[in-house]
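Troubleshooting: if your tokenizer reports a length mismatch, compare your output against this known-good record of 176 residues.
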Amino acid sequence: MFTLSSIRPFSCRFTRHYSSIPKPFTYDEAERWIADFTKDDIPKEDLSVAFSRSSGPGGQNVNKVSTKVDMRLQLDQARWIPHYARVKLRDSPRLNKTGELVITSDKSRTQSKNIQDCYDKLTSMIKQAVVVQREADQDTLARIEKRRQREDGKRKELKKRHSNKKATRRTKNNDY
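Known-good structure output:
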């Protein structure tokens, strides 16, 4: 038989599950993390680097030397990236089916410059994922609300003018 006493409260069943998900940084925490993060902080053991022949600059050197760099980062193993940033990076078009973030470079004629370019690209992608939008202060919110009300008033005034224009075109006594 179903009784009210047999139902467990909602908060007891689900609160623990959702409290275990880490919350994003505050704006200040994210700014500090971004300022401190450099490409030297990326653990080398989390990356896999492969080289291949490039289609980039180099003349006949392109046919002989493997200068194109293919760098891969397994996102699930990158615990040094904040959780919410890893979730953002999972939506990246550079993510393959196995969950690896793939960065390539063939800008330069040398492997070392292409590796540095890949590190720079990866660092900027991670920093962009960590960014948190700043909360609006009360002055900004008030200014936005004032603008919204002004735009609503303009829109209503235009609708009223348009309605009056149409109403004056109508005649009361049609002889047709």
